[in-house]
Structure formats: C-alpha cells, structure tokens
Amino acid sequence: MDIKKLYDLSGKVAVVTGGGDGIGRGVCRTLAHAGASVVVSDLDLVKAQETSRLIRQEGGRAIPVVCNVLDSENLGNLVNTAVRGYGTVNILVNNAGLGGGGRENPFKIDRQYVERIYAVNVFAPWELSKLVAPYMEQSGYGSIINITSMSSVNADPNMSIYGSSKAALNHLAANLAHDLGPMGIRINNVAPGATRTKALASVLTPEIEKKMLANTPIRRLGEVDDIAGAVLFFAAPVSEWVSGQTLMVNGGGVQTL
Ligand SMILES: NC(=O)c1ccc[n+]([C@@H]2O[C@H](COP(=O)([O-])OP(=O)(O)OC[C@H]3O[C@@H](n4cnc5c(N)ncnc54)[C@H](O)[C@@H]3O)[C@@H](O)[C@H]2O)c1
Q1: Is 113 noted as a catalytic residue in this protein?
Q2: How much is the pTM?
Q3: Which whole number is the average pLDDT over 19-31?
Q4: Quick one: which H or E segment has residue 49?
C-alpha cells in the first residue's frame, strides 16, 4: 500500500468557499500542499487573492475568485471559472458560514436574520453541490465536504438559528450521500469545535476560553490546520468508502460560549 497515494490530490481540482480567511484559508493551503489545483473563492476578492498568493509562494496552483455564496449568479460563475481554468471540479468545500456566537436572542432576531443565516449555511452548500455534481460524475472523482459545527449537536442559549442551520447541513449531507453515491460522489461534514480564527476572536473572552479549556480533554483550542487535516481526509482517496458522515474535530470536548 502506497500511503502517499492515499492522500495525493495531484490532478484534482478543488473549489473552496470563504477561502480568504480562517478555516477556509487553511483548507485551501492544505489541499494545495496535497497537490490539488485550488479555486479560492471569497466574498472579499483581496482576501482570496492573498490566499492564492500564499499557495503559489508555497509551490501550488490557485485561482482567486470573488463569490458571495448568497448570489446564485456568483455560484455559477465560480463553477465556470474552475472549469475554464482547470477543466473540472473534483472537490468542493462548503466553508463559508454565518451566525451564532451566542448572539441569537430569539426575541431580538427577525425573520430576515433567520433567512440570511439559512441562505449562507444551508441553501448555498445545497446549490453549489448541485452545480458541481455533473462535473464530478463526468470526471470520475467527487468529494464534497461541508464545514458544519459542534453547534450542530450542542444545545446552547442564543444559538438556535446557527445551531439548527448547521444541524440541517449535517443531515443534508447524510441524505445527499444516497443521491450522489451512485454518481461516484461522496459527501461528508467536518464539525469544528472552537477554532482560532477572526470569527472566534470576536466572541472569545479570557473567561470563556478558560471554561472551554476545562471542557476540552486535549487542553487547547483548535487551530485551522486541525480542521484542514480532517478536510484532507475526506477529500483524498483514503476515504473513498466514507460518505454521509460527520466528523467532530474538537479536542475530544464540548466548547460552549
Ligand atoms: N472558528 C470556529 O470556532 C468555528 C467553529 C465551528 C464552525 N465554524 C465554521 O467554520 C467556517 C469558517 O469559519 P471561520 O471561523 O474560519 O470564519 P472567518 O470569519 O475567519 O472566515 C470566514 C471567511 O468567509 C468569508 N465569507 C463570509 N460570508 C461569505 C459569503 N456570504 N460568501 C462568501 N464568503 C463569505 C469571509 O470573507 C471570510 O474570509 C464557518 O462555516 C463557520 O460556521 C467555525
């Protein structure tokens, strides 16, 4: 058995949403290190360009694309850019996400807020999966990975919309695995615990961090590379008989706000 081949993504094309920062940037760099050509998309083109620059500096291949996942035209353009640039799409990482942070007082948020969170966290991954599936089928290699959250299984105050949207994404993949499997496409979820990014920094206080660490057997918070490693597992041939699953990457614990 050639262990390197099990994690080799040479010749594969990966599309990542929200690739301009945080977990998305870490995922883009890891997939590029494994040999994939990466289409780095983000709401913010400058951040997507910076991720692409880092990848090229590290010897990889990357194209930056502006893409707001709320916009169907942007999603279509993202897939077309990948196909024009690299010929197909083999790997899709639905990483862009919104909401949570203990800021969802049910009596203060409105329907517009709920629709926006579900549009980013659930509708966009569904739509993008649908758009890339024909290319994955045609190419003979397809793996879709959704970045969900520990909040998809935890129950906490002021997290109802984010938590339920990420739970929906978990179950979307469990069901889509049945539809996509016969097309040769796998779909899985990586559910991060508290991971050091700008999004986490916006809610983390020393008190919250102390409480989180007390509930985390591996006594540190997550780093983007912890999450990227799990994504690589699902993206690569090593997991070719794994679909419809959710992997918690959380230091073995439960970090609540
Ligand atoms: N950091 C954590 O502790 C943590 C824990 C659990 C789950 N997650 C999930 O991980 C994913 C990434 O989170 P992060 O912490 O790296 O966030 P982040 O804020 O550090 O980075 C998110 C990136 O997504 C982009 N983005 C935001 N809205 C977008 C949109 N509508 N279209 C396209 N791009 C958009 C941003 O510009 C940014 O570059 C999210 O789905 C989040 O829910 C994060």
Answers
A1: no
A2: 0.98
A3: 98
A4: helix 45-57
